[in-house]
């Protein structure tokens, strides 16, 4: 029995780098968790919602990226950008997905002196208490 034909993502119309950038920027600002969580966000956004690729193509990309060193989510995001927008699409995808967290890390690093002040220490202690109480409440779940 022959397998049903799959649409060729390379034959699809290329998207503008701007379109790809905006889609990934939204994900970069709202996607929390590690690479495995990001893969779920990517599938929901690009397979289910936008239909930029089919489920099998997405699965093939994820499988390939699992063999490569580094975070699979970065590689999958880059690959989807490459498929849908060529080299500029790949650059737009990587930049937009990475930029929000890079800017946040830069802002925190730039403001490190604030955390060594008396007020900053209290803020950090308050955050630690909130995090600890959250962890304790999770441990009581059935």
Could you spell the SSE succession in H and E letters? HHHHHH
Number of strands: 0
Structural class: mainly alpha
| Average pLDDT | 87
Main sheet attributes: strand count, strand direction, barrel closure? none
Multimerization state:
single chain
Residue share in helix? over 70%
What Rg is obtained from the alpha carbons, in whole angstroms?
20 Å
Features:
mainly alpha; 0% strand; globular; 142 residues
Write structural notes for this entry.
This protein has 142 residues and is mostly helical. The chain is built from 6 helices and no strands. Helix 2 (35-49) crosses helix 4 and helix 3 crosses helix 4. The longest helix is centred in the middle third of the chain and has 39 residues, at 72-110.
Break the fold down into its secondary structure elements and pairings:
Elements: H1 17-30, H2 35-49, H3 55-67, H4 72-110, H5 112-115, H6 118-139
Entry summary:
The protein contains 6 helices and no strands.
């Amino acid at each position: 029995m022959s397998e049903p034909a799959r649409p060729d993502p390379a034959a699809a119309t290329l998207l503008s780098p701007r379109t790809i950038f905006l889609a990934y920027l939204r994900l970069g600002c709202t996607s929390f968790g590690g690479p495995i969580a990001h893969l779920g966000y990517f599938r929901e956004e690009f397979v289910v919602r936008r239909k930029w690729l089919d489920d099998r193509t997405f699965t093939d990309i994820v499988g390939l990226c699992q063999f490569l060193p580094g975070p699979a989510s970065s590689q999958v995001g880059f690959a989807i950008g490459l498929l849908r927008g060529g080299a500029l699409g790949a650059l737009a995808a990587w930049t937009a997905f990475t930029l929000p967290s890079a800017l946040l890390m830069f802002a925190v690093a730039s403001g490190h002196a604030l955390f060594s002040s008396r007020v900053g220490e209290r803020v950090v202690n308050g955050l630690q208490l909130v995090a600890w109480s959250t962890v304790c409440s999770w441990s009581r779940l059935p």
